[in-house]
Amino acid sequence: MKTKNKPPSSQETVSKKPIIALFNYGGGMRGLLPAHFMQKIEEVTGLHMSDMVDVFMGPSTGSILNTALNIPNPHDPSKPKFRARHMVRFYEREGLHIFPRDSFRAFRSMIHDFNNRTMRIEQLGNLLKHGHYEHANLGRSLRALYGRQKLSDSLKSLIIPVYNIEGAALRPTQEAGDTPHSPVHNVNTFLNEGGHAVWLKNINFEGAISPPTTPVVDIFDAVMASTAAPTYFPCFPFQMKWSEDSPTRTVTGIDGSIFDNPCISYMGALRQHIPKDRDLIIIVLGTGYFNRSYQKEDWNRFGSLGVVDPSNDMPLINIFFYASETALLDSFKQEMGDNLYIFNKSLVSGPYMNDYPNTDIDDASPENLRKLRNFFEMTLEENRKSFNEICELLVKNYDATHKGESPTNSLKSRIRRTFLRGED
Predict the structure, then answer these.
(1) Is the dihedral of CA 134, 138, 139, 141 positive or negative?
(2) Secondary structure (DSSP) of 112-157
(3) What does pTM read for this prediction?
(4) Pick from 293, 295, 269: nearest CA to 280
(5) What was the pLDDT predicted at 415?
(6) Are 125 and 115 in contact (CB under 8 A)?
(7) Of the four, 113, 162, 202, 360, which is 20 to 30 A from 406 by CA?
(8) 309: CB partners within 8 A, 6+ apart
(9) Cα 271 to Cα 113: distance, rounded to the nearest angstrom
(10) Are 31 and 62 a contacting pair, CB within 8 Å?
(11) Which helix (H) or strand (E) holds 76?
(12) What does the alpha-carbon distance between residue 67 and residue 50 come to, in Å, rounded to a whole number?
């Protein structure tokens, strides 16, 4: 006698469903671009981003977005406090508080640098604020978002990258065959001192391999450090513990964008937690890229200071930001295959460059906000098919863990009607 196949249990369904990770780039005010994208996704699907995404990654302004969308609602801790549309308003409302118009900032920075190289008058450096924006303004804006929430409170898996410029928080690692606490005990074999990348992770998705203990750290502190963009803000020191019973350590953090990108987040922070029998889908929301090429004649005439001179668009800094990503991108794309969706666009080439937003991270002017909105709409229009696909994928991901709670058919019909007909 034939027996009917037993339908998979909800637990089996969850364990085999794809894992969806979202990476949001850094870029200051250009964080409005992924914010607009996520607002559109939530409008189309009718769901919160944290309902549909399993892992949130990304540095700097990306960490502002990722953490805000995972803050629990005080009235219903299973739901997020903010939607993506709230974050669009956050950038539009807080932009000029964080980056007030300062025509003399570049001049103050130049005088500060000259003072450092010649007179070294400490009082002058303090008077000029070292050429930075007020960190307190950013702090007030972020404190209003996060309150006193801990990293462990995030609704979904969250990875916040910070670069620690001091070596005090390094964690010793034991090599195979070593005797613990012996005089020859290896500590971080490649690099055992100096600055280093720090991954602040709360890995809580179903089936994660060896999820690390979530560090004891305020979300506010982690994001303040990850957004401390060099030349714009001072470094941000904060205290944390790697676990409840470990000693308190001090991290002196600067912007995670100096080392982080989708390839590095995947290889350095996420890959080791993905089961071999689970597919991983990564969605990348960019903030516009401006990787430029340089003619050899231009490069040679820059000289030692010219390669970091803002008047030359800081060519060496530009190279540092994109070098590691260009080195890893081919391997990353090959490994991810069709499970990689990238929504990004050049800010320095294209037919409508006159209406492109500013590449600077601190332009919060109404005109630049308008240009950012237009740039998002251009990027969306160029990627309608892929956008439709990820909306379908995100709804399916929600359904896999919320059986009977989501009107799947109506959502899919809405997605098809909106995008196949080209409606907004």
Answers:
(1) positive
(2) HHHHHHTT--HHHHHHTGGGPPPHHHHHHHHHHHHTT-BGGG-SSE
(3) 0.86
(4) 269
(5) 55
(6) yes
(7) 202
(8) 302
(9) 41
(10) yes
(11) strand 76-80
(12) 10
pLDDT at 8: 47
Q: What share of residues in the chain are helix, strand, coil (percent, to 5)?
A: 50, 15, 40
Distance CA 133, CA 314 (A): 19
Residue 196 contacts by C-beta under 8 Å, 6 or more apart in sequence? 163, 164, 167, 170
* Residue 317, helix vs strand vs coil: helix
- CA distance to 15, 113, 119, 231, per residue, from 124 (Å): 60, 11, 10, 17
**pLDDT of res. 1:** 39
Return d(Cα 411, Cα 388) in angstroms, integer: 12
Residues present in the chain in total? 424
Alpha-carbon distance of 52 to 395, in angstroms, equals: 7
